Amino acid sequence: MERELFRFDAPDVVAGWSAIDDRVMGGRSHSALRQVDAACASFTGEVSLAQGGGFASVRSAPQDLGAPGAGAYTLDVRGDGKRYKLALRTDDAFDGVSYQATFVAPADAFTTIRLPLSVFVASFRGRAFAGAPPLDPAHVRQVGLVIADGQAGPFALRLRVIRAE
Fold first, then answer.
1. Is-contact 85 165, C-beta < 8 A?
2. What is the value of pTM for the model shown?
3. CB of 44 within 8 A of CB of 153?
């Protein structure tokens, strides 16, 4: 079953997303999701390792994003050669367990990245969390993007679509 979760071709889509950066714990990183043109949005900002920081992220508002029977998530993206994570949450909480899968998007052209459910790892505040149940795509409520892992400096990830399939 394929379900298009977000198509970034209109400003109202990005309006429902919020930045959640390491500033919540005293860091200095910053990010935003902005509409670039009629076809895509861009997750941009700068990761700073100062004051114990080191991550930037954006997340959709809680909503029904369930896709029963889905076996993977795909993103149509163009990146900058850095590692990003697609983060999925199955509740409406601000803090808690997320299921994350790492990907690298090439800088030269848009490409489709496919992330099977098997590569998603339960995480709590950036660390693996062994006590979580497996990701159930039928219960996804929030979708996010994260850049971390000591990748200091500016970043830019362009997005056209995020879907479950």
1. no
2. 0.95
3. no
Separation CA 74–CA 58 (nearest Å)? 17
Q: Which two tokens mark 111?
A: 């490409």
The tokens describing 113, both together, are 């990245």
CA 25/CA 148 separation, integer angstroms: 14
Instruction: Delimit the domains of the chain by residue range.
Output: 3-164
**100-117: pLDDT as tens digits:** 999 999 998 999 999 999
| Domain boundaries 3-164, corresponding CATH code | 2.60.120.430
Distance CA 147, CA 135 (A): 21
Q: Could you tell me if 46 and 154 are in contact, meaning their C-beta atoms sit under 8 angstroms apart?
A: yes
Cα 101 → chain centroid = 9
CB 116 within 8 A of CB 81: no
The pLDDT of 128-135, averaged and rounded, is 88
